[in-house]
Amino acid sequence: MPGRLQNRSALVTGANRGIGLAIAKEFAKEGATVLLAGRKKAALDKVRKEIEAQGGKAQVCVVDLEKEKSVRALAKALKKKLKSLDILIGNAASLGARVPLTKYPLDTWRQTFRINVDANLVLLQELDALLKKSAAPRVVMLSARVATQGKATTGSYAVRRRWKRWSGSTSPRPGARRCVSTS
Ligand SMILES: NC(=O)c1ccc[n+]([C@@H]2O[C@H](COP(=O)([O-])OP(=O)(O)OC[C@H]3O[C@@H](n4cnc5c(N)ncnc54)[C@H](OP(=O)(O)O)[C@@H]3O)[C@@H](O)[C@H]2O)c1
User: Fold this and answer.
1) Per DSSP, what are the bridge partners of residue 140?
2) How far is the CA of 77 from the centre of ligand 1 (A)?
3) 155 alpha-carbon distance from chain centroid
4) Whose CA is nearest to atom 24 of ligand 1?
5) Ligand 1 pocket: which of 12, 13, 16, 19 to mutate (most atoms <8 Å of CB)?
6) Beta-carbon contacts of residue 41 (< 8 Å; ≥ 6 apart)
7) pTM of the entire structure?
8) What does the pLDDT look like over 84-141, one tens digit per residue?
9) Which residue's alpha carbon is at the smallest distance from atom 48 of ligand 1?
10) Domains and CATH numbers, the chain
């Protein structure tokens, strides 16, 4: 029986470990061609080989989400390579510092926002046209419980998770692209 994601393409950020890795493997099992995005080529190549050994399809996309240039370069490469993009999973994240806000280092605060918020905004804007070429585009931005439940020392991580909850209302065509939050 063909998988539920047969002939679909899915970009998964942070696909080398954790939840991103699990999503990438499940999507590949369901027949998707998974675009494994992350900053560690060797780790991503290992995932690609594991997926291929199981009969799945995957490609490695090296990107440092902290760097806007790198994010735009990834989008440019995808626009050259793909006719359409079916699924965008904004999974990668940095936890940042686990200290009270009064002691939170500003450089870490900014770094967390660059990775967890800015990169997803740029990806969404850059890949919007490619997603709209899909018959059933889906954008999933992972969130977390700290977006709604206050917890000490979750700092910029909690604040940017909140942004991801808001991002569900940014779809220009309600219903055409479904944004899902995990919390
Ligand atoms: N784990 C939980 O309990 C939990 C609960 C609620 C929500 N979530 C959400 O689920 C998502 C995944 O969580 P997780 O626990 O699987 O995270 P994780 O194990 O810490 O993995 C984070 C991923 O993001 C990548 N990443 C970080 N900075 C990057 C950068 N600058 N450029 C490219 N990739 C970068 C990491 O790559 P490297 O290996 O290169 O660092 C890694 O692949 C996050 O959005 C998180 O907020 C997790």
Assistant:
1) 89, 180
2) 23
3) 21
4) 92
5) 19
6) 60, 62
7) 0.90
8) 999 999 999 999 999 999 999 999 999 999 999 999 999 999 999 999 999 999 999 9
9) 144
10) 9-180 (3.40.50.720)
